[in-house]
Amino acid sequence: MSAAGIPRLQAGEDVNEGIDLAALRAGLAALFPAADPMAAKLSELAGDASSRRYYRVRNAPGAPLPSFVVMRYPDEVSPEAELPFLNVHRYLTAAGVPVPVVYRSDPKANLLFLEDAGDTMLEDAVRGHGARGCLPLYEQCVEILVRIQSEGTRALDGKAIPPRLSFDVAKFTEEIDFFFRHAVREYGGIPLFDREERAIRDLFHPFLEQLSAFPRVLAHRDYHSRNVMVLGPAKTPGHRNLRVLDFQDARMGNVFYDLASLLRDSYVTLPEDAVEELRYAWRHAATAELRGAAGDPGAFDWRFDLAALQRNVKAIGTFGNQAHNRGKRIYLRFIPPTVAHLRGTFERNPPMRALAGRLLPILAALAEKAEEEDPA
């Protein structure tokens, strides 16, 4: 949607596919009573891999805020229930995590009015300045992650949603099944006998059991370079030069999950020495309790790679689903680098050799197909 003045809502217009303009105008009037809501400019922003839609509203000159973002979320939560985004937001805010300010909630229209965190993702910053140039930003992200895992976990109470959810064997297995269904069968069209698929699942299972047995802390669940916005390159108190997004699916998980998501990112491939520096930064910043949850320091690399293995396989399932079922073929370009991460994980870890022998040919086929069909 190109920028335009907020129009009058036409009679009979189906707003369920877009945004309720009457509710938007009412929100503008409540937030900025002295401004003319009809003079504001509305534009739709590029979405993520979810069904949420985002709009930027640029206020008329003289308004207290030059712009803000409206999120329209799907009809999955009744107006009487607390939205997971708001629930998790409350605990992250209490923990001092830099998340966007929530200005207003309109549950009847499925709208949230949020702070505008700009257009520069951490991924964009790396593209512009290189991984080495962005290492200070990544160090901040690691410090923020420690805050999520420590202060965030301590902030949770009986009203928090994340403690009701966890990365256990069942959830990890569900995500591996998601990979087979959406990436292997639907997108890849790779024929597998049931016994072949079962054999691969059986080889995964001990690794998933290990991951689920580690002590659990609050996990963002999708902590990567597209969910960190960069407002400025210089570190500020409270890391307010950054904003963490897309945290509504937070749940309890092991301390390695979000770290692996950030450092074995499908969108940004960091040099190996940078990965090692940032893992050291986590160990240096972590509380004694978090270091205890990580277990034997000698096993840190292995446990990190276990988390990266599961996370990267799940990510390929997401990309296959986006391409095959939602027509978002732009996600195909992220399958090959994710497969490259997995190759490295297998090469570093001989105990994964049996799984690698069965899974790598499938991954290679998916990467080859994705490279051929990448619309770029």
Note down, in words, how this protein is organized:
There is one protein chain. The protein is α+β, with helices and mostly antiparallel strands. The chain has 2 domains: 111 residues, no CATH class; 252 residues, Aminoglycoside 3'-phosphotransferase, Chain: A, domain 2. The protein contains 12 helices and 10 strands. Strands 1-2-3-4-6-5 form a 6-stranded antiparallel sheet, covered by helices on one side. A two-stranded antiparallel sheet has the order 7-10. Helix 5 runs antiparallel to helix 6, helix 5 crosses helix 10 and helix 6 packs across helix 10. It starts with a strand and ends with a helix.
In short:
With 376 residues, this protein is of the alpha+beta class.
Which terms would index this structure?
two-stranded antiparallel sheet, six-stranded antiparallel sheet, single chain, 12 helices, Aminoglycoside 3'-phosphotransferase, Chain: A, domain 2, 376 residues, disordered N terminus, 2 domains, globular, alpha+beta, 49% helix
- What is the ordering of alpha helices and beta strands? EHEEEHEEHHHHEEEEHHHHHH
Radius of gyration: 22 Å
Main CATH class of the largest domain: Alpha Beta
Q: Say how many strands there are.
A: 10
Total domain modules? 2
Low-confidence runs: 1-17
Residue-averaged pLDDT: 92
How much β-strand is present in the residues? 5-15%
Q: Structural class given helices, strands, pairing?
A: alpha+beta
- Supply the CATH superfamily name of the largest domain: Aminoglycoside phosphotransferase (APH), C-terminal lobe
Terminal CA distance reads: 22 Å
CATH topology of the largest domain, what is it called?
Aminoglycoside 3'-phosphotransferase, Chain: A, domain 2
Q: Characterize the biggest β-sheet.
A: 6 strands, antiparallel
The tally of helices reads: 12
